[in-house]
Amino acid sequence: MSELTEFERGQIVGAHMVGASVTKLAEVFGVSRGTVSKIMTAYRRTGKTTSNKHQCGRKCVLSD
């Protein structure tokens, strides 16, 4: 499964804010309850739904 898009993460946050349960959101979006919880925790802490991780691309060369 691929990573959730920013839009999908926003939908999860919005649905949770209007009362949807973590379990129901996990079923609807086809992700684990842990994923939904991590998104909500990140949103509460930083106000953002994006991760600071960059998970694509080649690693940078640090020396010649």
TrEMBL record:
Q: What SUPFAM superfamilies does the record tag this protein with? A: Homeodomain-like
The cross-references to Pfam families, in alphabetical order and at most eight, read: HTH_23
User: Where in the cell is the protein located?
Assistant: Nucleus
Read off the InterPro entries from this record: Homeodomain-like_sf, WH-like_DNA-bd_sf
What main location does UniProt list? Answer: nucleus
Q: Which GO terms describe its cellular component?
A: nucleus
Q: What is this protein called?
A: Tc3 transposase DNA binding domain-containing protein
